[in-house]
């Protein structure tokens, strides 16, 4: 116990300064000597009123308060300290036979109590217990402050990442002769692994992409940004089949090391003819709603990028007639209804009577608006050929 006042870890507020408040000069002086031998810096006051004046000046860590003093007693000093939320531990001192007063003091916020006349063993045990409790409370507060600061930093980083990710998505749909194009991405968390995009390699061609990286949050977002950049660069000079095979080779090592994969729907539309060339890399969430209301699933498909090294992707084709609509979406829409998987036909039926791509998009997004947080990132792309 003799070294207690000097033992503390870096970053913790040490417990060194004690204020003894007792109107009995003999008892007051005796406690001062005991505490100084234990290594503490000790101050003293003869009554409660003087103690109030000394607390701001001396900034004690522990108060040893006699309950019965003329003028302002120990309970009143205790109340004053607790009302102001001071970082001070309080030990009350009571005479034998007044334990009920000690219980009242504990109820009002005292940390412990001692009975007079003081016994050395009890005195040191109570003091050690109180000092250790105060030290741990201060350490916990310091750790909470550090955690709060880390949390604020993380939230700021996530907010910046969300802004960057949002800026990677297209701003506004391009003007397309005879077609309407709309898309939206809603992350399940602040940032996510879904993405979509389009390019106009030449006036008669539109390239479309919708992807879904396994997982959510920052890891998925980092892989999303990489996959998007690679595929975007390759799509400028290559048709869908070649672009996707080259992208798969470029991303293969990164995906294998991370243990992740990416599902992709990548297509190229010839605007004059309405012919769509596409590759489905394990995505599977795409359908065509024909002008007559029938629904067609897109044939063909492959495996997600990052699952089968060296896999060769093959291209499929279809033609969008007047009034036809291509809908591509992610798991967030397919799994929007808890307990069931929304089928393409059901989603297609929800579009009946819609006036264009914008209204179709809004209807599909509303399906996922169940009032509950999204279980997965939600992305929808709608390409409608005007009738």
From TrEMBL:
Transmembrane segments: none
Residues annotated as signal peptide: none
PROSITE patterns membership: RESPONSE_REGULATORY
GO BP terms: phosphorelay signal transduction system
InterPro entries, per database record: Bact_Sigma-Reg (IPR052016), CheY-like_superfamily (IPR011006), PPM-type-like_dom_sf (IPR036457), PPM-type_phosphatase-like_dom (IPR001932), Sig_transdc_resp-reg_receiver (IPR001789)
Residue ranges annotated for the Response regulatory domain, each copy included: 17-131
Coiled-coil spans in chain: 133-167
Tree of life domain: Bacteria
Modified residues (4-aspartylphosphate): 66
GO molecular function: phosphatase activity
Keywords per UniProt: Coiled coil, Hydrolase, Phosphoprotein
Record-given protein name: Response regulatory domain-containing protein
Lineage: Bacteria, Bacillati, Actinomycetota, Rubrobacteria, Rubrobacterales
């Amino acid at each position: 116990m003799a070294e207690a006042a000097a033992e503390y870890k870096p970053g913790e507020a040490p417990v060194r300064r004690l204020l003894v408040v007792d109107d009995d000069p003999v008892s007051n002086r005796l406690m001062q000597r005991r505490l100084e031998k234990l290594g503490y810096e000790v101050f003293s006051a003869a009554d409660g009123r003087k103690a109030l004046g000394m607390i701001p000046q001396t900034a004690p860590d522990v108060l040893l308060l006699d309950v019965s003093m003329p003028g302002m007693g120990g309970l009143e000093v205790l109340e004053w300290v607790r009302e102001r939320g001071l970082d001070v531990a309080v030990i009350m001192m009571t005479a034998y036979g007044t334990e009920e007063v000690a219980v009242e003091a504990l109820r009002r916020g005292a940390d412990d109590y001692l009975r007079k006349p003081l016994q050395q063993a009890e005195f040191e045990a109570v003091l050690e217990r109180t000092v250790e409790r105060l030290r741990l409370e201060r350490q916990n507060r310091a750790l909470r402050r550090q955690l709060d600061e880390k949390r604020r930093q993380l939230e700021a980083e996530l907010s910046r990442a969300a802004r960057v990710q949002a800026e990677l998505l297209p701003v506004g749909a391009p003007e397309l002769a005879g077609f309407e194009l709309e898309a939206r991405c809603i992350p399940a968390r602040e940032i996510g692994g879904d993405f979509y995009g389009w390019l106009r390699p030449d006036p008669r061609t539109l390239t479309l992409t919708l992807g879904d990286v396994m997982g959510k949050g920052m890891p998925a977002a980092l892989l999303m940004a990489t996959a998007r950049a690679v595929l975007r660069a390759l799509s400028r000079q290559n048709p869908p089949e070649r672009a996707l095979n080259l992208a798969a080779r470029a991303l293969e090592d990164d995906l294998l090391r991370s243990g992740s994969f990416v599902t992709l729907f990548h297509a190229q539309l010839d605007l004059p003819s309405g012919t769509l060339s596409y590759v489905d890399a394990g995505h599977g969430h795409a359908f065509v709603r024909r002008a007559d209301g029938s629904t067609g699933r897109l044939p063909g498909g492959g495996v997600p990028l990052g699952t089968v090294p060296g896999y060769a992707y093959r291209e499929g084709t279809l033609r969008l007639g007047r009034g036809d609509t291509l809908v591509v979406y992610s798991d967030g829409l397919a799994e929007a209804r808890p307990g069931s998987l929304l089928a393409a036909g059901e989603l297609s039926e929800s579009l009946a009577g819609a006036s264009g791509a914008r209204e179709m998009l809004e209807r599909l997004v509303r399906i996922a608006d169940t009032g509950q947080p999204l279980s997965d990132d939600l992305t929808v792309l709608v390409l409608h050929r005007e009738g």
